[in-house]
Amino acid sequence: MADDEPTRAARLLDAQAKAERLFAEIEERGLVAPGEGERAVSDRVRDLANELFGTTRHWHKRIVRSGPNTLAPYRENPPDRVIATDDIVFADFGPIFEEYEADFGRTFVLGDDPVKHRLRADLGEIFAAGRRFFEAVPDITGKQLYAEVERLAAEAGWELGGWHAGHLVGEFPHETVDGADTESYIAPANDTPLRRTDKAGRTCHWILEIHLVDRQREFGGFYEELLTL
Q: Whole-model pTM?
């Protein structure tokens, strides 16, 4: 039997809280470090999720990208790269906790490069501004929110790195909710309201993801978490 809406919301928030703790442990344990390969760091994060929460499944591929690899959108698979001393790295993980999906992304800056540190700071600020815009427009569509995030990025001097700025999230696997179609994404082609129910009558919950890139300097950053709760 499907969970009622308050239970769904609580379990999605609990899944995100666990993902947030996982990322705090990544930083505390220094897993993102110069001289480490991206794939090796990804495997250590996978093992850490298992150690902390008994998590063995992730609903999407585990991503750790550094340097120029941070320009690549999700669907690309750049070659494994060794993290450098003065690098920028982002991690994007989708662990499953008690059959509910988390989707969490953060950026790490190694060294003192001021532009990389500014990008990392802007990620959180643009996420917060995008959320405020979402909250202020009751019938907002995926197209409208994408356009606002794109505007905020350009205003800060960055480009968006992907064709969408977020997606549905829920019980695993969320793809069965609406299918992998345009209405499942915060994207220019999605003219449907984000505040709606799915085909099963459940409230749609969304992840907002901010992928900022500087193509001239060949690096980017990433930030994502729940938008709707």
A: 0.93
